[in-house]
Design a protein that fits this description.
In the N-terminal section; belongs to the thiamine-phosphate synthase family. It comes from Extremus antarcticus. Condenses 4-methyl-5-(beta-hydroxyethyl)thiazole monophosphate (THZ-P) and 2-methyl-4-amino-5-hydroxymethyl pyrimidine pyrophosphate (HMP-PP) to form thiamine monophosphate (TMP). This is Thiamine biosynthetic bifunctional enzyme. The structure is a single chain. The protein is of the alpha/beta class. It contains ten helices and eight strands. It has helices spanning 19-22, 27-37, 51-65, 78-84, 98-105, 118-126, 151-164, 182-189, 203-206, 211-223, and strands spanning 11-14, 41-44, 72-75, 88-91, 110-115, 131-135, 170-174, 198-201. Strands 1-2-3-4-5-6-7-8 form an eight-stranded parallel barrel, surrounded by seven helices. Helix 2 runs parallel beside helix 3 (51-65), helix 3 crosses helix 4 and helix 6 (118-126) packs parallel to helix 7 (151-164). The longest helix has 15 residues, at 51-65. It is globular and about 45 Å long. The chain binds 4-methyl-5-hydroxyethylthiazole phosphate and magnesium ion. Residues 75-76, 92, 95 line the site of magnesium ion.
């Protein structure tokens, strides 16, 4: 069997086009700046646009991400990912299930699943998710109605149980992560046998007036965590 190309999950950007986050900036320009600054993977998350508009936006973003070798995923919508020809999807517990998504998108697609508990994480890992988006770590105004806030200790428990079940599924966590806490999140979530492969952020980059610089500085924090005592 041919191994899938390794994916760099270290700085995972989730987009948000709502005025509260994006302001009057242009989505494509912000994503371009973030890619220049070093985000390694991008998820188009847009709960408002209708089908045709979403495919159009995805194709625009793909023109930016693809030449940079940065995978583009679409939140929730397997059909949109197929229509736009992007690299994959991110599905939540209430979206199309992973097995069906895999059947539709094929073995090479990147499929990520949201996991809020050990049970959800183990199930998604067993079902063949490429990565898990673990969270919500900290409460965040970016996403209302988040299920439970699990904190860094909740993330650590999930990593521990994935490792003891023998899974090498990749993991990022999401929710309230910014420049001020990124290194602490990496440090506090690490279990002896498994650590996060990256951090996912929305507002830390999307709401920034300088998304390129926001990505550069976050990437530095992630790639070189401090020598905590
Ligand atoms: N899923 C859980 S929290 C969240 C999502 C999409 C939003 C995270 O946004 P931010 O601005 O990085 O806290
Ligand atoms: Mg969803």
């Amino acid at each position: 069997m041919v191994e899938k190309q390794p994916i760099d999950y270290s700085l995972y950007l989730v987009t948000d086009s709502t005025p509260a986050i994006l302001g009057d900036k242009d989505l494509v320009s912000v994503v371009r700046a973030a890619v220049e600054g070093g985000v390694t993977i991008v998820q188009l998350r847009d709960k408002k646009s209708d089908t045709g508009e979403l495919v159009r936006i995805a194709k625009e973003l793909h023109k930016v991400t693809k030449p940079a070798g940065v995978p583009l995923l679409i939140n929730d919508r397997v059909d949109m990912a197929l229509a736009a020809g992007v690299e994959g999807v991110h599905v939540g517990q209430d979206d199309l299930n992973l097995t069906t998504a895999r059947r539709l998108l094929g073995p090479d697609a990147i499929i990520g699943v949201t996991a809020n508990s050990e049970k959800e994480a183990l199930q998604a890992a067993r079902d063949g998710a490429d990565y898990l988006g673990i969270g919500t770590v900290y409460a965040t105004p970016t996403k209302e109605n988040t299920k439970s806030i699990i904190g860094t200790s909740g993330v650590q428990q999930i990593l521990t149980s994935l490792a003891s079940d023998g899974h090498d599924v990749k993991t990022v966590c999401i929710g309230g992560i910014n420049h001020g806490n990124a290194q602490r999140v990496l440090y506090q979530t690490a279990s002896p046998s498994k650590r996060l492969d990256g951090l996912a952020v929305v507002s830390a980059i999307m709401a920034s007036n300088d998304p390129r610089e926001a990505a550069i500085s976050l990437r530095k924090l992630i790639v070189q965590p401090p020598p905590f005592a």
